[in-house]
Amino acid sequence: MNITILAVGSRGDVQPFVAVGLGLKAAGHHVKLATHSNFEQFVTSRGLTFAEIKGNPREWLDTEEGLQWLESGPGLVRFYTGLKRFMEPVMESLLPTSTAACRDSDIILYSIVTSSGPHIGERLRCPSFPLMLQPAYPTWQFPSVIANSTADQNRIVNRLTHLITDQILHQATRSSVNRWRKQDLGLPSSSLLGPARLQRRRKVPHFLGYSPLVVPRPRDWDEHVHVTGYWFLDRENGWQPPEPLTRFLESGPPPVCVGFGSMTIRQAEQTTHAIVNALDRCGMRGILMSGWGELGACPLPPTVLAIDSAPHDWLFPRMAAVVHHGGAGTTAAALRAGIPSVVIPFFADQFYWGSRVTKLGVGPATLPFSEFNEIQLADRIQSAVTDPHILERSRKLATGIASENGVDRLVETFQKAMKTGSANGQIQKRPH
Q: Residues 6 or more apart from 104 whose CB is under 8 A from it?
């Protein structure tokens, strides 16, 4: 089968889908990964076909408005307002390029952020299945990962937050999607409730790429919702760390890694100084991963090293702990490495992953970036690297995650769905 995977966002958003693509390719399928141009070499070096999707979110997140959105914290209203402003200009280029990328596809797999997958599937009369890095499927047991920051509510409120989030994601892009459906796809306007609800009603297979040890499967999910385990992509064979990094690691005890991934930061130098001071208060060495926030772009003491990046599967096992923003990918990598996490969430699902880290006992309480300061950070780092319960639970959870293979499980489940017809009528003959 010709399978197209639609993925947008940062490296952490795209990398798990490369892993999925490689698994499907090994099973005999031709796989095309459609994403932003800056990932072309990353995709093709792994042996997958690349197609470009325009509308890179970093261009907007680097604006003043984007920074304000990242700093807005949890809350559905703030999230919707920012999302609508963000998505409207992005969709103008994302949607038509997604259409072109999916030409000749037999199957479309899509991240829920792209929005375009089910619409293109409708036009091509081919199946489209969502790939999720979060437990973003309605349940009575916990709130939406976007609505929630700290605690579960009663079951009615929990379910309602999922339905509201559904509509936020749909309504934020509906006008752009409907113009595109009419002009490019020749389709009528989408329903008021949106394609996600229709996909669930038809019991279309949903693939969720995280460990059930981290988020136990809710009892009210149907069989078409598959929690497969994480979709890890290990570093390429032959990768070697740069000499300064090797020399730094060999010169002392394991450091604390600090990085905020794709989060842009208004005052990077001030934030860097606060991190350095917090590490000094704890007597810890540190590695700063610059990321989109450009941490470490200033003079540093010899106890702290700034690097652009390094594969998490190589770097994290060599760390004492990792301080991060709570992105799904970084959280997963830290859990896999068996080291404590100090989560400093900015917005959206990061608060959810931070709360899971705390509840699982593999890290201290979250420190929202809006409340960030060196004293609070030092306190959490100290807890992370000295609390024997956190250290033991981190190691134990990593052992459980190591026994899972999310990519193999996804491929197995995908193949079975295709053979048994459990896609519930999604597979249709292409019009001649």
A: 2
Partner residues linked to 110 by β-bridges: 6, 130
278 three-state secondary structure: helix
Map residue 217 onto helix, strand or coil.
Answer: coil
Tokens read off for 338? 């068996």
290 neighbors 306 (Cβ within 8 angstroms)? yes
- Containing structural domain, residue 70: 2-230+404-420
In 49-151, DSSP assigns E strands to: 49-52, 107-111, 128-132
Residues 165 and 190 reside in one and the same domain: yes
pLDDT-derived band at 149, boundaries 50, 70, 90: very low
pLDDT in tens, 214-231: 999 999 999 999 999 999
Burial class (CB in 10 A: 0-12, 13-18, 19+), 363: buried
Among residues 371, 364, 331, 359, the alpha carbon closest in space to that of 142 is found at 359
- Rounded to whole angstroms, how far apart are CA atoms 387 and 321? 12
Q: Does residue 425 carry a pLDDT above 60?
A: no
**DSSP, residue by residue, 335-386:** HHHT--EEE---STTHHHHHHHHHHTTSS-----GGG--HHHHHHHHHHHHH
Q: Is the dihedral of CA 11, 17, 22, 23 positive or negative?
A: positive
Residue 226 corresponds to which tokens in the numbers above? 């598959």
**Model pLDDT, residue 430:** 43
DSSP labels, 149-166: SS----HHHHHHHHHHHH
pLDDT tens column, 399-423: 999 999 999 999 999 999 888 765 5
Mean pLDDT of 47-55: 92
195 in Cβ contact with 174 (< 8 Å): no
The residue-averaged pLDDT of 379-404 equals 98
3-state secondary structure of 242: coil
- Structural domain count of the chain: 2
Co-location of 360 and 322 in the same domain: yes
Query: Both 379 and 408 in a single domain?
Result: no
CA distance 213 to 229: 9
**Positive or negative CA dihedral for 264, 267, 269, 272?**
negative
Strand order across the 256-259 sheet: 304-307, 286-289, 256-259, 321-324, 341-343
Co-location of 195 and 296 in the same domain: no
